[in-house]
Amino acid sequence: MGEAPCASLAFKARRSSAHSHSHAHSRTAETFLILHERSDFTHITTMLRSDVFSCFVFYAVLLILKMYFLAILTGQLRLRKKAFANPEDAVRHGGLEFFREDPDVERCRRAHLNDLENILPFLFLGAVYSLTGPSLPVARLHFLVFLLCRVLHSAAYLLALTPPTRSVAYVLGQVPCVSMALQVLVAVVPYA
Ligand SMILES: N[C@@H](CCC(=O)N[C@@H](CS)C(=O)NCC(=O)O)C(=O)O
């Protein structure tokens, strides 16, 4: 799959530099290019129809929605607590004195930031891991454990649950990520 787009691009480059060639030759080139691009498309649709990849997409989208929830909650808390990150926002909502920090807003921001630190790598690792041909139940277990841990991490952060709840959620969430990272490395090490 990786070679096909490059091959297409290389062919396009060759095609554009061959202006002086005959009309018949350029028709053949055009046909080759179209067929080649269709085969790229087939690879992509095959990938999207893969059970494991679809399973990954399901959990990935839930995690992204969870992150949107934290971003929206941060904005709502700013309005409710009158604690704005920019002077122009503070002025619009009552005065420069509201250009300030609030502990609840900051807590929500930290929960969101921690999601960014952990969910973004998961999105990459999970997508690549899905392409290494794992079994569906094992892959689903990786994705589900990560999702549950991230939900628990956010809840523990927002509700200030008794330690070490948040830390445990964080560490357990790292387990499927490290497992996927190792399996991806094993799959690609022959190409290193
Ligand atoms: N950037 C994180 C790296 C380590 C981490 O993610 N720790 C977890 C479990 S203690 C956490 O919830 N950290 C709090 C945070 O990132 O705000 C930190 O500064 O703490």
Automatic annotation (TrEMBL):
One of its GO terms (molecular function) is oxidoreductase activity. InterPro entries: MAPEG-like_dom_sf, Membr-assoc_MAPEG, MGST1-like. Its cofactor is glutathione. The chain crosses the membrane at residues 56-74, 143-161, 168-191. Keywords: Cytoplasm, Fatty acid biosynthesis, Fatty acid metabolism, Isomerase, Lipid biosynthesis, Lipid metabolism, Membrane, Oxidoreductase, Prostaglandin biosynthesis, Prostaglandin metabolism, Transferase, Transmembrane, Transmembrane helix. The keyword Mitochondrion does not apply. One of its GO terms (cellular component) is membrane. It is a multi-pass membrane protein. It is found in: Cytoplasm, Perinuclear region; Membrane. It holds the Pfam family MAPEG. It comes from the Eukaryota. Pathway: Lipid metabolism; prostaglandin biosynthesis. The keyword RNA-binding does not apply. It catalyses: prostaglandin H2 = prostaglandin E2; prostaglandin G2 = (15S)-15-hydroperoxy-prostaglandin E2; (5S)-hydroperoxy-(6E,8Z,11Z,14Z)-eicosatetraenoate + 2 glutathione = (5S)-hydroxy-(6E,8Z,11Z,14Z)-eicosatetraenoate + glutathione disulfide + H2O; 2-glyceryl-prostaglandin H2 = 2-glyceryl-prostaglandin E2. Its main location: cytoplasm. Terminal enzyme of the cyclooxygenase (COX)-2-mediated prostaglandin E2 (PGE2) biosynthetic pathway. Catalyzes the glutathione-dependent oxidoreduction of prostaglandin endoperoxide H2 (PGH2) to prostaglandin E2 (PGE2) in response to inflammatory stimuli. Plays a key role in inflammation response, fever and pain. Also catalyzes the oxidoreduction of endocannabinoids into prostaglandin glycerol esters and PGG2 into 15-hydroperoxy-PGE2. Belongs to the MAPEG family. This is Prostaglandin E synthase. It comes from Gadus morhua (Atlantic cod).
